[in-house]
């Protein structure tokens, strides 16, 4: 079973059994808006896109069969078995203007063998319809097509070439909104189901007469129904909405309902497999759930969870090097950047999530890991209004057996106002584990892991160790020095430096005007410097040995970061609507690297990810990337990173060889603004370093191909084994003679070898020595002969290998 | 599909004293038996042999009590004046007691009339004791002397006139028949050796000494006087080891618990304190209704006997141990246990295919109702009598959960008089609790909003509303007072703390720092 899913500019094919992405059907140059199985051939699928083309694919092999060029942006695609060779698409009524008017157009697909076909036979069926693809549907056996406008249902009968319209009042008596949101038709009976804004479902019957139509109302959803679908036999109706509950209604016995609750984010689409055995729901948090007949969730395809907004910093879990950020409501997600895979969600709030608009939820607003990764601190808050603010500070200990975090201490109301910053020391002295939090209430608190006072308590827990304040100013940020012997807390214009050993105020540094927004200590040889960004667009650097200002530069720094493995610091500056990046060493006046107009909007989240293997690049401009990657999140929620020239070469090379490689990690954010990224990437092509989607580093094409394919689509292991060994052998031969053409030839030879390998291996033995000589000494040999000799040589290797193994 | 997450009941730290093994041990006594004596109980002494009778010296009598009897087993009444310090000999056969009339009397425990009368002191005798060889008696008197007497011929063997004030306590060594220690109101402790004519060691306690105690090993001596309990190391020549000041009135009596691990001291401040003899920290505290004069522990700490100035004798017996009870229970239940043990002990073999039943999530009743969005019912469940009385945190957690779901108003509305008064009584009981206040204030505001129209219709509800109002007014006054106290404390701290010269740099270019501090911070930074 395969599942097709439109994702950005490609269509992805998933296996329902293994949740694995088999291929991405790439070819469209704009957002894909619809995917449809070809009614006459269930192994082919149409896809339509805003780039004005409809493409026909063989999705089992991932091959593009044909491209039909329409010429207008397409918002939806429909087809019916009754209308052979015709597809129905939604296009704007006026091509050049950005009008809100759309029409349903029938397109006769020309039958010819060419790859690119221009479809010119267009005929409008319905005009002035909704652009939402869920708001139109084919009726029973393709006899009619139904389309819903905000308050009108229009049915077009193909036989009579006539359309009927049915209207609803804008609001019903109880104030519910009658607006149509989605529509579907019963496969065998004349019945249309429509979903509405107020959560009602209406079943329309008898609509082939303008006057005598009837409808019945079903009501369970409390807010808009976002998707409706009948099962293929028409026995059940499935509906889903923002409540993330899949509701199954029995057709004709609508009082009987089955529910499948707590599926995740809001349900955006429902689809049913042609045999009716599997249902599939897609969710707003970048997730696809596969359900076996409304009973059991059988598989979950989950990308990087798209939260409402990212409020925590981007963090790196020190042990698994996973990227940590807000995920599902009340959760933190752990996302592996190396494997491009969601590792797990950690439930921080631990409360039942109730979806209701206007309801204030607990949100995870802050999180921090300690240096060794054994503690995680999180802050959650609800109700931002001052008197009713609910705050919880939670401390999680890493459980070595479970390999996940376990709640250790909950501190409710740790501060009287919102917490502005949270930080752990970089190195702990082994005895005390400490955490510092600063709050709008004008205090900062140091929390300490204290051993239990009495032996029968379970274990150590956290308690407040010190409460500090400075002239009742509000602390905005705090930072520990590299050796954790100093703590800098920024109280508006004043930076105070404390010693955590005795909690004495050592010194104060100030550089008015402007409150300090961000503080950062230098690392390694630059640890004597303290950098601060102020709201008055200044970046200050203090020397802590002399307690004097080292330098000031005028830039509107929105984010200041220190690379944990080198002296480098990164400053994201907001300048004229876009963000510039400067990488510098605090001790040196000249920046190591600067990049103007990185992206539009402010960058507020970024992180240095330590590399597993240090790069030995001596290129001056990319030296700062030797120790760590820099990932950052733009305002439009794209997650971007920097790569070096060498890596880029490797990537492009591997992407040529590998059809399978794709940008899985990009999809969640990329989905939203894939186009935007394109514009971003192009101007940077000239620069030596370019912003590239995250790709998997690949070692060998053959091995990758073997390992990345799901097991059930691979040929038998015995066949693979010889291929695998051969792929290894080729790589051995590479240094002696490497030629692109010859490699291709060898690929074609593989088939022959398998058949007559046994006989020729006997002959090859005596000829071994001459073949080696002739290969290099006689260039005058014909191509045929060279090929023959090469084959013998290779076979000889395999034979010797067999001997050695024995 | 994730499972339903039950309401989170926060665990609040328990207020009050912490439960330790010590408190469990010392709390495991029954309610005390109180016996009225004829006057202040000045001394209690347990017989060293079974059945561990104890002699209680009060006014002109000495009563002998059995361990479990509430009536005196025997009474010695042949005293002309107040008796002091009735003590058993180590074989439990003889009892000696001093008297206000300066005569020391020796009794046979089974007889009534005094066997011997030792006359020689000129003032009241407050201290009597047998030496370890059982043939001699030590006495100490208000005439500043202490004497040794021979029992067989009732002769005075030796007299020591070294103290310069009343001798009020003394103890003989259990290991050496010639050694004894006396304590006097002249603030000194003296160690005597009967083989020489004068004291061998003098220790200054610093306060009139009220009580003395020798450790079983006799290396340590404990003295009590004034508000202090002091421990001296005799083997190091009377070096002070530790001084305890945990009472706020004069300490009058000392006792060691049977295994020598705990020291008990009783005081006129009506407390008995238990110290750990390794750390000398107070591990437990008993309260008594009157000033304590005497204290004794039965062997194995089976009972604590305390005598007080209001002539009450209080006896606490240890509860029978839990183990004995448990074993009895086990025996009764054993047959049924065996039936289940058979099933539980079945271990699947290695190649067995295990079919596991899905674990059903157990939910509390209010959680089940919350899961079905029955908000009013869930609140009703949480307001059930035993929950709101015993575990108000559950009720508060449910109210908080309802508030989080935005349905608290619906849950509170539409209640009749009885239900409303139940809600209000819960609010009255818990509104001022600092742990619950933030949640309950929201709920109280909502209740007032919803039910303001019916004020005046029900006398019950009106009364409770008035009560709530007065409660809030009182709480406001408390908070105001507390803030005043806080302000006072702040000024006191500000004036008492040494002023720290804080380097504060202005707008000027050099952020000046005093030389001393800058050097202090330098090494820390240069480590890297």
UniProtKB/TrEMBL annotation, chain B:
<dbReference type="Pfam" id="PF00400">
    <property type="entry name" value="WD40"/>
</dbReference>
<dbReference type="GO" id="GO:0005730">
    <property type="term" value="C:nucleolus"/>
</dbReference>
<dbReference type="Pfam" id="PF09384">
    <property type="entry name" value="UTP15_C"/>
</dbReference>
<dbReference type="InterPro" id="IPR015943">
    <property type="entry name" value="WD40/YVTN_repeat-like_dom_sf"/>
</dbReference>
<keyword id="KW-0853">WD repeat</keyword>
<comment type="subunit">
    <text>Part of the small subunit (SSU) processome, composed of more than 70 proteins and the RNA chaperone small nucleolar RNA (snoRNA) U3. May be a component of the proposed t-UTP subcomplex of the ribosomal small subunit (SSU) processome.</text>
</comment>
<comment type="function">
    <text>Ribosome biogenesis factor. Involved in nucleolar processing of pre-18S ribosomal RNA. Required for optimal pre-ribosomal RNA transcription by RNA polymerase I. Part of the small subunit (SSU) processome, first precursor of the small eukaryotic ribosomal subunit. During the assembly of the SSU processome in the nucleolus, many ribosome biogenesis factors, an RNA chaperone and ribosomal proteins associate with the nascent pre-rRNA and work in concert to generate RNA folding, modifications, rearrangements and cleavage as well as targeted degradation of pre-ribosomal RNA by the RNA exosome.</text>
</comment>
<feature type="repeat" description="WD">
    <location>
        <begin position="244"/>
        <end position="285"/>
    </location>
</feature>
<feature type="repeat" description="WD">
    <location>
        <begin position="118"/>
        <end position="159"/>
    </location>
</feature>
<dbReference type="GO" id="GO:0045766">
    <property type="term" value="P:positive regulation of angiogenesis"/>
</dbReference>
<dbReference type="InterPro" id="IPR001680">
    <property type="entry name" value="WD40_rpt"/>
</dbReference>
<feature type="domain" description="U3 small nucleolar RNA-associated protein 15 C-terminal">
    <location>
        <begin position="346"/>
        <end position="491"/>
    </location>
</feature>
<dbReference type="GO" id="GO:0045943">
    <property type="term" value="P:positive regulation of transcription by RNA polymerase I"/>
</dbReference>
<protein>
    <recommendedName>
        <fullName>U3 small nucleolar RNA-associated protein 15 homolog</fullName>
    </recommendedName>
</protein>
<dbReference type="GO" id="GO:0006364">
    <property type="term" value="P:rRNA processing"/>
</dbReference>
<feature type="region of interest" description="Disordered">
    <location>
        <begin position="508"/>
        <end position="528"/>
    </location>
</feature>
<dbReference type="InterPro" id="IPR018983">
    <property type="entry name" value="U3_snoRNA-assocProt_15_C"/>
</dbReference>
<keyword id="KW-0677">Repeat</keyword>
<dbReference type="InterPro" id="IPR019775">
    <property type="entry name" value="WD40_repeat_CS"/>
</dbReference>
<dbReference type="InterPro" id="IPR036322">
    <property type="entry name" value="WD40_repeat_dom_sf"/>
</dbReference>
<keyword id="KW-0539">Nucleus</keyword>
<keyword id="KW-0698">rRNA processing</keyword>
């Amino acid at each position: 079973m395969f599942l097709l899913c439109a994702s950005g500019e490609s269509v992805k094919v998933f296996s329902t059994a293994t949740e694995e992405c088999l291929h991405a059907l790439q070819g469209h140059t704009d957002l894909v808006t619809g995917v449809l199985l070809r009614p006459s051939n269930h192994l082919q699928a149409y896809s339509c896109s805003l780039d004005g083309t409809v493409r026909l694919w063989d999705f089992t092999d991932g091959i593009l069969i044909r491209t039909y060029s329409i010429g207008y942006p397409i918002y939806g695609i429909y087809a019916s078995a009754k209308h052979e060779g015709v597809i129905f698409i939604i296009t704007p009524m006026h091509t050049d203007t950005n009008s809100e008017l759309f029409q349903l157009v029938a397109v006769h697909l020309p039958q010819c063998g060419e790859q690119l076909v221009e479809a010119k036979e267009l005929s409008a069926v319905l005009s002035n319809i909704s652009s939402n693809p869920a708001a139109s549907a084919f009726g029973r056996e393709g006899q009619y097509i139904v389309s819903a406008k905000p308050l009108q249902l229009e049915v077009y009968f193909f036989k009579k070439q006539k359309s009927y319209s049915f209207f609803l009042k804008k609001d019903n008596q109880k104030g519910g909104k009658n607006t149509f949101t989605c529509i579907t038709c019963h496969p065998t009976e004349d019945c249309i189901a429509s979903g509405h804004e107020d959560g009602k479902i209406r079943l329309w019957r008898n609509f082939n007469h303008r006057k005598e139509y009837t409808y019945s109302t079903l009501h369970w959803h409390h807010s808009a129904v976002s998707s409706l679908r009948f099962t293929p036999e028409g026995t059940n109706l499935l509906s889903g909405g923002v409540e993330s509950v899949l509701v199954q209604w029995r057709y004709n016995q609508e009082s009987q309902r089955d529910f499948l609750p707590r599926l995740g984010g809001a349900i955006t689409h429902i689809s049913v497999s042609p045999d009716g055995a599997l249902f599939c729901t897609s969710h707003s948090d970048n997730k696809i759930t596969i359900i076996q007949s409304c009973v059991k969730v059988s598989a979950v395809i989950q990308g990087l969870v798209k939260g409402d907004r990212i409020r925590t910093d981007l963090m790196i879990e020190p042990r698994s090097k996973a990227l940590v950020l807000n995920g599902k409501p009340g959760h933190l997600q752990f996302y592996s950047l190396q494997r491009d895979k969601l590792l797990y969600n950690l439930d921080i709030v631990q409360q039942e999530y109730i979806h209701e608009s206007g309801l204030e939820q607990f949100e995870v607003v802050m999180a921090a890991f300690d240096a060794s990764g054994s503690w995680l601190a999180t802050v959650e808050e609800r109700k931002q209004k001052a008197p009713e603010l609910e705050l919880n500070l939670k401390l999680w200990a890493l459980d070595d057996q479970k390999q996940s975090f376990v709640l250790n201490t909950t501190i409710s109301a740790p501060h009287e106002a919102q917490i502005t910053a949270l930080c752990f020391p970089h190195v702990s002295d082994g005895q005390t584990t400490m955490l510092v939090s600063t709050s709008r209430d004008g205090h900062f608190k140091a929390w300490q892991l204290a051993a239990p006072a009495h032996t029968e308590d379970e274990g150590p827990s956290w308690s407040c160790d010190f409460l500090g304040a400075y002239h009742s100013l509000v602390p905005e940020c705090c930072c520990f020095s590299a050796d954790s012997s100093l703590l800098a807390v920024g109280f508006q214009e004043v930076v105070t430096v404390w010693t955590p050993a005795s909690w004495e105020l050592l010194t104060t540094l100030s550089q008015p005007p402007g409150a300090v927004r961000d503080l950062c200590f230098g690392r390694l040889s630059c640890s004597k410097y303290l950098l601060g960004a102020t709201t008055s667009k200044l970046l200050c650097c203090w020397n802590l040995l002399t307690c004097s200002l080292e330098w000031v530069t005028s830039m509107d720094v929105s984010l200041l970061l220190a690379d944990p493995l080198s002296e480098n610091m990164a400053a994201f500056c907001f300048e004229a609507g876009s963000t510039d990046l400067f990488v510098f060493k605090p001790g040196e006046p000249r920046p190591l690297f600067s990049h103007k107009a990185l992206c539009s909007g402010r960058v507020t989240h970024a992180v240095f990810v330590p590399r597993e293997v240090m790069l030995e690049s001596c290129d001056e401009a990319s030296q700062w990337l030797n120790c760590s990657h820099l990932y950052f999140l733009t305002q439009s929620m794209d997650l971007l990173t920097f790569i070096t020239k060498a890596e880029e070469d490797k990537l492009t090379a591997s992407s040529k060889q590998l059809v399978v490689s794709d940008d899985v990690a990009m999809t969640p954010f990329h989905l939203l603004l894939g186009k935007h990224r394109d514009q971003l990437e192009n101007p940077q092509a000239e620069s030596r370093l370019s912003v590239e989607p995250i790709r998997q580093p690949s070692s060998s094409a053959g091995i990758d191909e073997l390992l990345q394919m799901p097991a059930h689509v691979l040929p038998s292991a015995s066949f693979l084994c010889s291929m695998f060994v051969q792929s290894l052998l080729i790589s051995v031969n590479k240094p002696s003679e490497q030629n692109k053409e010859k490699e291709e030839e060898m690929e074609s030879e593989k088939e022959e070898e398998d058949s007559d390998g046994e006989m020729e291996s006997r002959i090859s033995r005596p000829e071994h020595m001459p073949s080696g000589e002739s290969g290099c000494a006689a260039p005058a040999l014909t191509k045929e002969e060279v090929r023959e000799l090469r084959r013998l040589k290779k076979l000889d290797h395999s034979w010797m290998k067999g001997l050695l193994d024995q | 599909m994730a499972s339903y997450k039950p309401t989170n009941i926060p665990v609040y730290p328990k207020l009050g004293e912490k439960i330790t093994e010590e408190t469990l041990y010392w709390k495991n006594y029954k309610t005390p038996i109180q016996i009225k004596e004829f006057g202040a109980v000045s001394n209690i002494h347990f017989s060293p042999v079974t059945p561990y009778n104890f002699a209680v010296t009060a006014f002109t009598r000495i009563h002998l009590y059995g361990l479990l009897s509430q009536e005196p087993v025997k009474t010695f009444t042949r005293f002309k004046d107040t008796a002091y310090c009735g003590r058993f000999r180590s074989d439990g056969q003889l009892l000696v007691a001093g008297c206000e009339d300066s005569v020391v009397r020796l009794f046979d425990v089974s007889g009534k009339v005094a066997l011997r009368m030792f006359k020689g002191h000129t003032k009241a005798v407050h201290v009597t004791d047998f030496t370890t060889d059982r043939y001699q008696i030590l006495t100490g008197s208000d005439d500043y002397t202490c004497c040794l007497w021979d029992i067989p011929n009732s002769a005075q063997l030796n007299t020591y006139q070294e103290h310069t004030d009343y001798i009020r306590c003394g103890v003989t060594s259990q290991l050496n028949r010639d050694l004894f220690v006396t304590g006097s109101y002249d603030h000194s402790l003296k160690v005597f050796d009967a083989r020489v004519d004068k004291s061998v060691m003098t220790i200054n306690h610093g306060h009139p000494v009220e009580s003395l105690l020798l450790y079983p090993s006799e290396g340590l001596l404990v003295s009590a006087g004034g508000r202090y309990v002091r421990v001296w190391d005799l083997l190091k020549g009377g070096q002070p080891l530790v001084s305890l000041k945990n009472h706020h009135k004069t300490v009058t009596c000392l006792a060691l618990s049977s295994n020598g691990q705990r020291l008990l001291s009783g005081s006129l401040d009506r407390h008995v304190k238990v110290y750990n003899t390794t750390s000398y920290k107070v591990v437990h505290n008993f309260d008594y209704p009157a000033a304590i004069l005497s204290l004794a522990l039965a062997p194995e700490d089976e009972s604590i006997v305390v005598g007080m100035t209001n002539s009450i004798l209080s006896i606490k017996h240890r509860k029978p141990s839990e183990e004995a009870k448990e074993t009895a229970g086990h025996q009764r239940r054993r047959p049924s246990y065996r039936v289940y043990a058979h099933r539980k002990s079945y271990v699947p073999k290695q190649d067995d295919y295990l079919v596991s039943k899905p674990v059903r999530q157990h939910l509390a009743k209010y959680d089940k109702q919350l899961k079905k969005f029955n908000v009013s019912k869930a609140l009703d469940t949480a307001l059930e009598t035993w929950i709101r009385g015993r575990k108000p945190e559950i009720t508060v957690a449910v109210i908080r959960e309802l508030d989080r779901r935005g349905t608290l108003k619906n849950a509170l509305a539409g209640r009749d008089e009885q239900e409303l008064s139940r809600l209000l009584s819960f609010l009255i009981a818990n509104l001022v609790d600092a742990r619950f206040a933030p949640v309950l204030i929201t709920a109280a505001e909502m209740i007032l909003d919803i039910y303001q129209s019916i004020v005046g219709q029900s006398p019950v509800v009106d009364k409770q509303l008035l009560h709530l109002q007065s409660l809030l007014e009182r709480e406001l006054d408390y908070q105001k007072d507390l803030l005043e106290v806080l302000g006072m404390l702040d000024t006191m701290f500000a004036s008492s703390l040494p002023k720290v010269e804080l380097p504060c740099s202005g707008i000027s270019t050099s952020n000046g720092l005093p030389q001393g501090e800058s050097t202090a911070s330098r090494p820390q930074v240069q480590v890297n």
